[in-house]
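Troubleshooting log. The previous structure file for this entry was overwritten by mistake, so regenerating from the original sequence record. Sequence copied from the archived sheet and checked twice against the printout by T.R.
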Amino acid sequence: MAEILNTTKAPLAIGPYVQGVNLGGMVMTSGQLPINPQTKQMPEDITEQTLQSLNNALSIIEEAGLNASNIVKTTVFVKDLNDFPLVNTVYGEFFESHNASFPARSCVEVARLPMDAKVEIEVIATK
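Regenerated output below.
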């Protein structure tokens, strides 16, 4: 049975979905927009948005007792693939700063993201 994950350290779901689910050995997050959960604001800069999205996803898996080292797969959605070098730099620094191995990753350009975000990131983590 899946356990619904819910934390105030990540933005609340803005639709009919949950922040994440804990399947016992695996945790999956919904796509995380770069919304600061305290201020409810989204930074304008793509690098700040990337870091916020990653921190939001991390907060959700931490609710299940996991950390960045447990992340095995990410999917990165970007509004403009020309921003990918900046996203990639922040992404790499995030995992290095948590002493975590880089997970498998997909990155796709999309026409539009909710709330006109520039990036959205979802993760899968294992115990």
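Residues 73 and 104 are 5 Å apart (CA to CA). Archived copy saved in two places this time.
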